[in-house]
């Protein structure tokens, strides 16, 4: 049986995440912040997502040069797409 996780954001909203892989993906994509609280669904202490060892790899990837380049490339693609849409009007 997969361990599910509860996430509480800084606004107090709670979400149940079906697996550690899903939790990792949410954190990696920026939907889960450093100060959001996480705990196993069965209980236990709330832990800051930024302090969870299981998410450390995502935290390093997100702050590394590859992540910055990916965000920059996405921004350039978005601007280009908007420019093409406006030119077609």
Helices and strands, with pairings:
Elements: E1 5-8, E2 14-17, H1 20-28, E3 37-40, E4 47-48, H2 56-63, H3 65-87
Antiparallel strand pairs: 1-2, 1-3, 3-4
Helix pairs in contact: 1-2
> What is the number of beta strands?
4
Oligomer: single chain
Rg over CA atoms, rounded to whole Å, is: 17 Å
Helix content: 40-55%
- Strand % is 15-25%
User: Could you give the order of the helices and strands?
Assistant: EEHEEHH
Q: Based on helices, strands and strand pairing, what is the structural class?
A: alpha+beta
Shape: elongated
Tally of contiguous helical segments: 3
Major sheet attributes: 4 strands, antiparallel
Low-confidence spans: pLDDT under 50, at least 5 residues? none
Strand order of the largest sheet: 2-1-3-4
Q: What is the typical, i.e. mean, pLDDT?
A: 83
**Amino- and carboxy-terminal Cα gap:** 54 Å
Written overview of the protein:
The chain is α+β, with helices and mostly antiparallel strands. The chain has a domain at 5-63. Helices cover 45% and strands 16% of the residues. The chain starts with a strand and ends with a helix.
């Amino acid at each position: 049986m997969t361990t599910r996780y509860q996430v509480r954001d800084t606004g107090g909203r709670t979400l149940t995440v079906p697996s550690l892989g899903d939790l990792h993906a949410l954190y990696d994509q920026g939907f889960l912040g450093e100060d959001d609280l996480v705990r196993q669904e069965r209980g236990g202490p709330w832990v800051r997502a930024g302090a969870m060892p299981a998410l450390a790899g995502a935290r390093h990837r997100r702050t590394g040069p590859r992540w910055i380049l990916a965000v920059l490339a996405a921004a350039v693609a978005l601007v280009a797409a908007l420019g093409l849409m406006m030119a077609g009007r």
